[in-house]
Automatic annotation (TrEMBL):
An annotated Gene Ontology molecular function: 6-phosphofructokinase activity
Statement: the UniProt record of this protein carries the keyword Metal-binding: yes
Keyword Kinase part of the UniProt annotation: yes
Protein known as: Phosphofructokinase domain-containing protein
Any single Pfam family the record assigns to this protein: PFK
Keywords annotated in UniProt: Allosteric enzyme, Kinase, Magnesium, Metal-binding, Transferase
């Protein structure tokens, strides 16, 4: 769900079993979105979950969003 996925309630664990055949499905199992997120909710979620690395895949807007979250 894009950046909203950090604080969404419908998250899934990406285990070897759950991603085994994703290349055969097409589309994205991660979801995507266009803009609009709550930066503080994202930061709170990152801290609450103990996440220490985030990989952002996307274009200019995604990278700008990552910069805001980092700051």
């Amino acid at each position: 769900g894009g950046y909203r996925g950090f604080y969404a309630r419908n998250t899934i664990d990406l285990t070897p079993k759950s991603v085994n055949d994703i290349h055969k499905r097409g589309g994205t199992i991660l979801g995507s979105s266009r803009g609009g997120h709550d930066t503080m909710k994202i930061v709170d979620s990152i801290q609450y979950r103990g996440i220490n690395q985030v990989y952002v895949i996307g274009g200019d807007g995604s990278q700008r969003g990552a910069g805001v979250i980092f700051e």
